[in-house]
């Protein structure tokens, strides 16, 4: 364990998540060596496995990189070669509230899918976990990209597992290219997985930046680059690099990185220049973004660690900038040469007992930016401060929102009492609110409106990325949102149809349902790892109203039979799970009154018949 005095901790959350840098230097060394060695077995083995007993029992699985352009560049998917993730493998890789699915490099995704199908990886991982050992995925170059996807895949399985004390995997990469877009990065952070990913990167290694370029700028040269970087290359030198026109390639990459870093800086620094929108309309900007924890290795042996995706993106550009004393050809050569320096540089760092680790995070103050011996100019430091200040502002916004939770709980408690009182009187919650005949109904509407303002503010802040990525995964807000949705959405539905908004706007479910309910429902479904749309119990009254309108507009029973049977089946499940109130089955309830008008042959075999007529519990449909 290194002397704590030799370390400068800036953000406790980053420090904790990267404790591996302090405690597991042997593991880092083994991962780096095995990742390099795996390249040798590319044609004979899809991965190498090595077991360790220290610092804890684990199996290291190292994936080799590929030096074939087709494994990097899916030419049929311009402009950036990205594709939606396979939701059956990666159900969490999405924006929960909006439902937008993450995108990743299609070539890397295909390689990983083939690996799952054609190799023994799944059985190897299962055996390791059955033995109570942790799985460590690692890789150098594109092997790191496969390690990232394998780690997310196993994290998904661990999250869904009912096995207690499941050991989550760790992913350690060296010079890995970027894999996913901003949704990918957001999902990894939301699920609390960022601490499971540690990406080492040399200052100007070309490979971690290569996905920031459109395919059109490198698809013709990627094979030349991979040929130079191949472990079997025998002619890597200044002269061969210069002959391969790498200087031009490096200049193009620098230009593309400048465009995307400037655009992102304008976004998180609050630039209102109209040219910002114009830029994206004619300049293709890469969707790929950093995710997880990044460890930048400097030429002087320091390791700069951060999890802030915006800050990492800025460093990826600014560390590439030319030194006035260097020729472009020299920098292009170094950018390739550094891709094979991880093993030697990390061994030097480990020999020095892992000293000089600098952690940068959201708790940094305005003048406290410590980037060690990185040579960064004023503009670069300004952007790094702005990126970190934005994360600090998001945390501050979250604190303010947290302070509203007591207001929300009090309002929900008041509405809960309103509902209970009505049920004791034999009155349906929905019907009483819709009629608005009493003072208590008016007061309930006031509470509904208060809650609407509070929840709409949360949703809009999420849409503007003004809250931390982890907010949608916080159990207290998922639970509060579920209580809110189930208690208050029936009142919103009652208000919608009381004012005949369906006549102008259309169906509540298709046109009128507010984002606050769609978001909170998806939070619950993601937290429970259940199918999207499966917890639509709060929309019960909207489903009833649509059935009533359809049958009232001369639709025959046979035309709505399947929907009606589905609703009744769902009612059984919702009632048995406590998500549908007993007031729905009161004799005076408008649903019961309507249901009794249905054909006798339907009512006689209905699974909710007993509850309708007060003859016992609901039966299975």
TrEMBL record:
One Pfam family here: Lipase_3
Fungal lipase-type domain span: 98-212
Localization annotation: Cytoplasm; Nucleus
Keywords from the named record: Cytoplasm, Nucleus, Plant defense
Main location as per UniProt: cytoplasm
GO biological process assignments: defense response; lipid metabolic process
Ranges for domain EDS1 EP: 414-610
InterPro entries for this protein: AB_hydrolase_fold, EDS1-like, EDS1_EP, Fungal_lipase-type
GO cellular component terms attached to this protein's record: cytoplasm; nucleus
PANTHER family given in the database record: PROTEIN EDS1-RELATED
Annotated protein name in UniProt: Alpha/beta-Hydrolases superfamily protein
């Amino acid at each position: 364990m290194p002397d704590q005095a030799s370390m400068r901790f800036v953000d406790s959350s980053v420090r904790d998540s990267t404790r591996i840098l302090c405690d597991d230097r042997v593991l880092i060394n083994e991962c780096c060596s095995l990742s390099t060695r795996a390249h040798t077995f590319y044609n004979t083995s899809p991965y190498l496995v090595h077991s360790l007993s220290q610092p804890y029992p684990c199996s290291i699985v190292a994936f080799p990189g590929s030096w074939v352009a087709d494994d990097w560049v899916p030419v049929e998917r311009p402009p950036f070669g990205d594709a939606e993730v396979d939701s059956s493998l990666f159900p969490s890789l999405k924006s929960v509230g909006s439902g937008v699915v993450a995108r990743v490099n299609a070539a890397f995704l295909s390689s990983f899918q083939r690996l799952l199908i054609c190799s023994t990886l799944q059985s190897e991982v299962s055996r390791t976990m059955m033995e109570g050992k942790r799985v460590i995925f690692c890789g150098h170059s594109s092997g790191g990209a496969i390690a990232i996807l394998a780690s997310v895949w196993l994290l998904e399985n661990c999250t869904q597992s009912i096995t207690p004390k499941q050991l989550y995997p760790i992913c350690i990469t060296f010079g890995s290219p970027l894999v996913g877009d901003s949704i990918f990065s957001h999902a990894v952070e939301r699920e609390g997985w960022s601490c499971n990913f540690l990406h080492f990167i040399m200052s100007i290694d070309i490979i971690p930046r290569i996905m920031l370029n459109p395919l059109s700028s490198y698809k013709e040269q990627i094979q030349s680059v991979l040929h130079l970087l191949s472990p079997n290359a025998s002619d890597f030198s200044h002269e061969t690099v210069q002959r391969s026109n790498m200087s031009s390639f490096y200049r193009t990459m620098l230009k593309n990185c400048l465009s995307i870093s400037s655009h992102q800086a304008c976004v998180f620094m609050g630039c209102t220049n109209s040219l910002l929108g114009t830029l994206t309309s004619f300049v293709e900007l890469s969707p790929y973004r950093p995710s997880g924890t990044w460890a930048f290795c400097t030429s002087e042996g320091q390791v700069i660690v951060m999890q802030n995706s915006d800050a990492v993106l800025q460093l990826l550009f600014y560390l590439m900038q030319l030194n006035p004393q260097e020729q472009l050809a020299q920098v292009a050569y170094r950018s390739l040469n550094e891709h094979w320096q991880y093993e030697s540089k990390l061994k030097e760092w480990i020999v020095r007992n892992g000293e000089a680790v600098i952690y940068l995070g959201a708790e940094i103050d305005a003048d406290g930016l410590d980037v060690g011996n990185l040579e960064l100019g004023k503009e670069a430091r300004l952007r790094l401060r702005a990126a970190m200040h934005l994360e600090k502002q998001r945390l501050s916004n979250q604190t303010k929102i947290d302070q509203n939770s007591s207001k929300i709980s009090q309002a929900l408690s008041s509405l809960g009492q309103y509902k209970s009182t009505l049920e004791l009187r034999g009155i349906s919650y929905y019907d009483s609110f819709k009629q608005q005949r009493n003072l208590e109904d008016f007061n309930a509407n006031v509470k509904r409106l208060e809650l609407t303002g509070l929840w709409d503010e949360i949703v809009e802040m999420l849409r503007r990325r003004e809250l931390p990525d982890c907010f949608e995964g916080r159990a207290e807000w998922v639970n509060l949102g579920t209580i809110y949705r189930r208690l208050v959405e029936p009142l919103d539905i009652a208000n919608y149809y009381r004012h005949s908004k369906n006549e102008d706007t259309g169906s509540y479910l298709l046109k009128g349902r507010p984002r606050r309910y769609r978001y909170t429902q998806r939070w619950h479904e993601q937290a429970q790892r259940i199918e999207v749309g499966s917890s639509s119990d709060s929309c019960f009254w909207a489903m009833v109203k649509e059935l009533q309108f359809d049958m009232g507009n001369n639709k025959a029973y046979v035309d709505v039979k399947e929907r009606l049977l589905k609703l009744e089946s769902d009612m059984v499940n919702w009632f048995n799970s406590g998500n549908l109130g007993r007031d729905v089955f009161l004799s005076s309830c408008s649903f019961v009154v309507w249901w009794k008008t249905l054909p006798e042959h339907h009512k006689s075999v209905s699974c909710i018949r007993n509850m309708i007529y007060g003859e016992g519990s609901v039966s299975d449909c």
